């Protein structure tokens, strides 16, 4: 189902941090939301998820760090059951096995609490939980920054393989155009609480129109920085 | 785990031994002649010095500090509190009868404290910063600042003197417990309300809760499964301390309301330098503190297994 | 010249560093890369003398490193400053704490080089952007003209554009000042672009030390290859066509 929202906005202590924003994402589409820190990317991600949820759309959100997604006093099994219950789904062992093998979650004892797992596995567990209900849209906020590169790269590859088969769209929020360029087909560039550019990835990379997009493109590659 | 429990018990034993030695030393070195004080209490009259010397010998006071300490601690280790230096009767039955007044008072105070503070804290945290919250915080702060002897006198003035609804002094009828228990309970309620409130608010501010909401977990389940356990940790700490301080509060309230119990037992024993009786109360109090602390430590570890992860 | 010679560091029964040897000449940059838990921070702590070496030794020009008064740039820009003090007071501490006077022309030159506006130093750490705070952290490290500067994940709190900008400022300051830079980072892109050599650390052992250009083309060790391929997969490095 195509995701469509209009008029997303947010204020914090009287200041507008997200100006009225519309967004449309087609089934299975892979979109990147890029911008400098403080440009309002995460705020937009939260507003999008909360609004879609309120509209009854099937959408899931994965925060930057597993610390923001898991209760340190509850077991992994508790989290999983709770997430199934929240979607009114009966416990289903094969669904869990399927997601665990798709994301290569292995060796973790579900009776343990999050801190008994490695951070990489915690993050994959959180992603697997987000996929329980086969959502139409998965929003990931800086999925790689809390993880070691090897684990992060592996996680992104597994998602790339899994999401298309379920027609789940991906909104990848990141400050790193290098990452987004490899992983998404369309880029939305944010600056000061607005989406200032929205175009296919190749087009943004080859011909950025706005100042924000130009800065991101110029600083995309470590080995080819402008003089 | 077994090593851990053994360590905890060992720690408790050290504390108890320290408390026993320290009070004995304090009492021993207090100014004035203990034998004279005991003799005065025993005969309730001025006594000749031969009698004082006699008392000194048969109370074991001439044997020196360590001998006297050994003579007292030895039987205690097998559960014998010894005999009163003044009356010569066993301390244990008298202590038991004093406690039969004090324990119900403490429990009643606790009951009042808990049944007032829990609903108050839940109401207050429904809208943090709202008028109800500010009232609750205000009342709790004032309540914690009012000393028990002043609150006790106010309650006596209102309910016993002006209204004449309740008895104030002594412990003749069950109704006599109401005012002392209320005095004790209001103080407990004040401090418990504050700690419950801040515990709940802090638990609600945890960084992972928004993710649970976005996952679709209903608010009441978030409160029950993710807020309450975290809020319980500081509450358990203070509750444990409160339980121990309750004894101290009860002793003071008993004196205000002229109730029999550990309060008068202790005051009389100190005046008469009745070593075995004073020591018995001190050991009892130390035992209570230590076992409550031990219990809290163990509850912590079940509530939040991260605590003490690196201990054993 | 910094010399880390067959150093091992023990924590309890575990070896956190095992037989680590590194060397670093003035004006040169060495990047130590690896995953969390590999012992990257322990390398820095050992060089600073904050953890004792179980064996081996670390020297600067054949003398204890401490004598050369090395400087450290930390990961968390704002957290590295006293929140009650203006940045100016914090930044000058390495000099004033030794009872010396601040060389105003040097301060001005460093501020200029690090693009720190004069009024930024009069604010507190919470009143400036993270990027500004980190540049002030670099200023504090450089103010007393240390021959050796240690960088512990200096860019990981910054966004991609600020990272690259800050990295370039560090490199320019190094050209002017000539200090030796030991950079601990998980970001191979940064290491490849700005370090002369890359040392790969895994579970407390050095897997390889390779010139950074050669590393991007062909890491010597299997693990180096895994790290480089992950950097490719995350867009931190681009494959040479």
In short:
The complex is a heterotrimer of chains A (227), B (312) and C (241). Chain A has 227 residues and is an alpha/beta fold.
Query: What's the number of extended β-strand segments of chain B?
Result: 0
Largest sheet composition of chain B: none
Structural class of chain C: alpha/beta
Task: Characterize the largest beta sheet of chain C: strand count, sense, and whether it forms a barrel.
Answer: 6 strands, mixed
N-to-C terminal Cα separation of chain C, in Å? Answer: 37 Å
Helix content of chain C: 25-40%
- The end-to-end span of chain B amounts to 7 Å
Number of helices of chain C: 8
Please count the beta strands of chain C (DSSP E, at least 2 residues each): 10
Mean pLDDT of chain B: 81
Order of helices and strands of chain B: HHHHHHHHHHHH
What key phrases describe this protein's structure?
heterotrimer, A: 227 residues, alpha/beta, Rossmann fold, six-stranded mixed sheet, B: 312 residues, mainly alpha, 0% strand
How would you characterize the overall build of this protein?
The complex is a heterotrimer of chains A (227), B (312) and C (241). Chain A is an alpha/beta fold and 227 residues long. Chain A is built from eight helices and eight strands; from the N terminus they run βββαβαααβαβαββαα. Chain A has a six-stranded mixed beta sheet, sandwiched between helices. A two-stranded antiparallel sheet of chain A has the order 1-2. In chain A, β7 and β8 form a beta hairpin. The radius of gyration of chain A is 18 Å and the shape is globular. The longest helix of chain B is centred in the last third of the chain and has 38 residues. Chain B is flat and about 85 Å long. Chain C is α/β, with parallel strands linked by helices and 241 residues long. Chain C has eight helices and ten strands. The longest helix of chain C has 18 residues. The model of chain C has no long low-confidence stretch (mean pLDDT 93). Classes of the chains: A alpha/beta (227), B mainly alpha (312), C alpha/beta (241). At the A-C interface, α5 and α6 of A face α5, α6 and α8 of C.
Topology of this structure?
The complex is a heterotrimer of chains A (227), B (312) and C (241).
Chain A: E1 3-12, E2 15-25, E3 30-35, H1 41-54, E4 59-62, H2 76-86, H3 93-102, H4 119-130, E5 137-141, H5 149-166, E6 169-174, H6 177-183, E7 186-191, E8 194-200, H7 201-206, H8 211-218
Chain B: H1 2-29, H2 34-43, H3 49-58, H4 65-77, H5 91-124, H6 131-145, H7 148-162, H8 178-204, H9 209-214, H10 219-256, H11 262-271, H12 275-303
Chain C: E1 2-11, E2 14-24, E3 29-33, H1 40-47, E4 55-60, E5 63-64, E6 71-73, H2 87-96, H3 104-113, H4 130-142, E7 148-152, H5 160-177, E8 180-185, H6 188-194, E9 197-202, E10 205-211, H7 212-217, H8 222-233
């Amino acid at each position: 189902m195509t995701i469509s929202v209009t008029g997303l906005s947010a204020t914090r202590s009287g200041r507008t941090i997200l100006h009225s924003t519309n967004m449309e994402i087609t089934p299975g589409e892979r979109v990147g939301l890029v911008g400098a820190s403080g440009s309002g990317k995460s705020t937009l991600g939260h507003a999008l998820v909360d609004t879609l949820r309120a509209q009854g759309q099937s959408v899931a959100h994965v925060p930057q760090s597993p610390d923001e997604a898991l209760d340190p006093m509850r077991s992994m099994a508790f989290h999983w059951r709770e997430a199934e219950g929240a979607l009114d789904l009966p416990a289903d062992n094969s669904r869990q096995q399927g997601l665990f093998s798709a994301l290569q979650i292995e060796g973790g004892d579900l009776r343990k609490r999050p801190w008994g797992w490695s951070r990489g596995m915690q993050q994959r567990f959180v992603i697997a939980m987000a996929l329980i209900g086969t959502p139409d849209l998965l929003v990931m906020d800086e999925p790689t920054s809390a993880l070691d590169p090897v684990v992060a790269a592996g996680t992104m590859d597994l998602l790339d393989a899994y999401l298309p088969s379920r027609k789940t769209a991906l909104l990848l929020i990141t400050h790193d155009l290098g990452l987004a360029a490899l992983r998404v087909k369309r880029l939305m560039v944010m600056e000061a609480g607005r989406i200032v550019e929205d175009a296919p990835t190749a087009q943004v990379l080859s011909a950025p129109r706005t100042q924000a997009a130009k800065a991101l493109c110029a600083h995309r590659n470590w080995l080819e920085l402008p003089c | 785990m077994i090593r851990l429990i053994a360590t905890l018990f060992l720690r408790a034993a050290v504390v108890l031994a320290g408390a026993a030695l320290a009070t004995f030393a304090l009492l021993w070195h207090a100014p004035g002649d203990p034998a004279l004080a005991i003799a005065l209490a025993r005969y309730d009259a001025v006594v000749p010095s031969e009698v004082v010397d006699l008392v000194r010998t048969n109370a074991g006071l001439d044997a020196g500090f360590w001998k006297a300490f050994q003579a007292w601690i030895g039987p205690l280790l097998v559960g014998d509190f010894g005999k009163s230096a003044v009356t010569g009767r066993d301390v244990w039955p008298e202590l038991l009868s004093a406690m039969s007044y004090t324990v119900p008072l403490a429990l009643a105070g606790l009951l009042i404290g808990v049944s007032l503070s829990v609903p108050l804290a839940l109401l207050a945290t429904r809208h943090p910063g709202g008028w109800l919250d500010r009232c609750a915080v205000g009342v709790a702060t004032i309540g914690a600042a009012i000393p028990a002897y002043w609150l006790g006198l106010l309650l006596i003035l209102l309910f016993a003197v002006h209204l004449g609804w309740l008895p104030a002094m002594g412990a003749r009828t069950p109704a006599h417990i109401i005012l002392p228990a209320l005095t004790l309970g209001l103080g407990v309620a004040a401090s418990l309300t504050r700690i419950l409130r801040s515990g709940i608010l802090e638990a609600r501010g945890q960084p992972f809760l928004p993710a649970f909401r976005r996952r679709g977990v209903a608010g009441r389940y978030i409160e029950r499964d993710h807020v309450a356990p975290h809020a319980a940790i500081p509450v358990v700490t203070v509750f444990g301390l409160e339980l121990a301080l309750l004894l101290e509060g009860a002793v003071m309230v008993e004196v205000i309301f002229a109730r029999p119990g550990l309060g008068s037992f202790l005051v009389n024993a100190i005046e008469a330098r009745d070593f075995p009786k004073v020591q018995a109360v001190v050991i009892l109090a130390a035992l209570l503190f230590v076992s409550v602390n031990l219990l809290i430590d163990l509850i912590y570890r079940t509530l939040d297994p991260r605590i003490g992860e690196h201990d054993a | 010249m910094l010399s880390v010679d067959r150093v091992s560091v023990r924590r309890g029964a575990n070896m956190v560093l095992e037989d680590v040897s590194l060397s670093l000449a003035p004006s040169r940059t060495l990047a130590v890369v690896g995953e969390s838990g590999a012992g990257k921070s322990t390398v820095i702590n050992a060089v600073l003398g904050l953890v004792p070496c179980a064996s081996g030794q670390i020297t600067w020009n054949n003398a204890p490193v401490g004598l050369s008064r090395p400087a450290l740039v930390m990961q968390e820009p704002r957290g590295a400053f006293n929140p009650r003090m203006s940045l100016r007071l914090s930044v000058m501490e390495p000099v004033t704490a030794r009872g010396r006077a601040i060389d105003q022309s040097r301060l001005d030159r460093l501020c200029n080089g690090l693009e720190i506006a004069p009024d930024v130093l009069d604010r507190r750490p919470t009143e400036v952007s993270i990027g500004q705070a980190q540049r002030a952290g670099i200023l504090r490290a450089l103010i007393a003209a240390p021959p050796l500067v240690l960088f512990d994940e200096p860019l990981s709190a910054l966004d991609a554009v600020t990272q690259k900008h800050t990295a370039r400022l560090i490199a320019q300051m190094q050209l002017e000042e000539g200090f030796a830079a030991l950079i601990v980072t998980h970001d191979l892109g940064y290491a490849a672009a700005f370090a002369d050599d890359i040392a790969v650390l895994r579970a407390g052992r050095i897997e390889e030390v390779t010139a950074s250009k050669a590393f991007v083309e062909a890491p010597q060790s299997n693990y180096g290859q895994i790290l480089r391929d992950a950097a490719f997969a995350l867009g931190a490095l681009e494959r040479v066509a």
